[in-house]
Amino acid sequence: MTVSAADSELSPPPDWDSAVTVDARGLPCPQPLLAMRRALGDYAAGTLLQVLATDESSWRDFHSFAELSGKPLLRAERRGDCFYYWLRAGK
After folding, report:
1. pLDDT band at 13, cuts 50/70/90?
2. Domain named UPF0033: which ranges (predicted)?
3. pLDDT tens by residue, 78-90
4. Closest by CA position to 72, among listed 15, 25, 4
5. Alpha-carbon gap, residue 48 to 64, rounded angstroms
6. Which of 8, 29, 51, 82 lies most in the core, judged by the most C-beta atoms within 10 Å?
7. Number of structural domains the chain divides into
């Protein structure tokens, strides 16, 4: 399952493979979301982050965070038992 949103029609598409990885696999809810929030503040604005999680609740949590915070979830995928989320750091 994949969900994507373009950064902007004027900017080039993100280089998904160059994203900084935040590995939250094996962490229970809400730890993957907290790891992502910490990383959003740790990196320069515009840095592409990829968060890895294995907690089933992370799918709901990341989508809810994006909706409530206004921070776009650029892409979300499930590959086997791992969830992948891409966001940009900064405001």
Report:
1. confident
2. 22-46
3. 999 999 999 999 8
4. 4
5. 19
6. 51
7. 1
Say if 10 falls within a structural domain.
Answer: no
The answer to whether the beta carbons of residues 58 and 33 sit under 8 Å apart is: yes
Residue 60 placed within a domain: yes
Give the pLDDT confidence score for residue 89 in this predicted structure. Answer: 92
Dihedral in degrees, nearest 10, Cα atoms 17, 73, 5, 71 = -120
CA torsion sign for 58, 63, 67, 72 is positive
Whether residue 82 lies in the annotated active site: no
Catalytic residue among 3, 27, 29, 35: 29
C-alpha to C-alpha distance for 7 and 83, rounded to whole angstroms: 20
